[in-house]
Amino acid sequence: MPVGNPKNQTIWSQRYQEKVGYITKGYKLKKDLTDSFKEACVKSGISQAAALTQFMEVFIDASKNKASANSDSSSAPEYMINSEDPKLSFIIETYDNLSDNHKDSIYKYVKKYYSKKQSKRNDQ
Fold first, then answer.
1. Measured CA angle at 48 (ends 33, 12), to 5 deg
2. Distance between CA 119 and CA 124 in Å, rounded?
3. What gap in Å lies between CA 52 and CA 90, rounded to an integer?
4. CA 29 centroid distance within chain
5. C-alpha angle 38-56-19 in degrees, rounded to nearest 5
6. What does the alpha-carbon distance between residue 111 and residue 124 come to, in Å, rounded to a whole number?
7. What digits encode the pLDDT tens for the residues 27-36?
8. What is the pLDDT of residue 54?
C-alpha cells in the first residue's frame, strides 16, 4: 500500500494494478533514444507502454520460435543478416514476426542507422 495518508483513488488504483499484474520497471537508457522513442510514439498515436508491450511480446515470440525452429531463412534485408553489429541482432531475430507496417518502420530505422555507421567508418 502507498506510504503516508493516500487518497481512496490511490488505494483503489494500486489494488487494481496488483490484481491485473501491473508492475513498475525502471531502465537506464540514453536520453536521445528515449526522446526519439517518445516522438515516434506520439507520431504513431500509440502510448509508450503499448509500444514496449508490443515489442516485448514480439521479441518473446521470436525467441521461442528461434529456439524451436532454428532456421536460417529470413526475409530481413541482406545487409542486416550479414552485419556483425550486435546492436542489430534483436532486429534480425524479430523481423520475420512483424507486420508489414512494423517491418517498414524498422527497415527505415536500420537503413538510417547503418548508413550513419558506414559514414563514420569512412571518415576514420
1. 135
2. 9
3. 14
4. 12
5. 95
6. 20
7. 899 999 999 9
8. 85
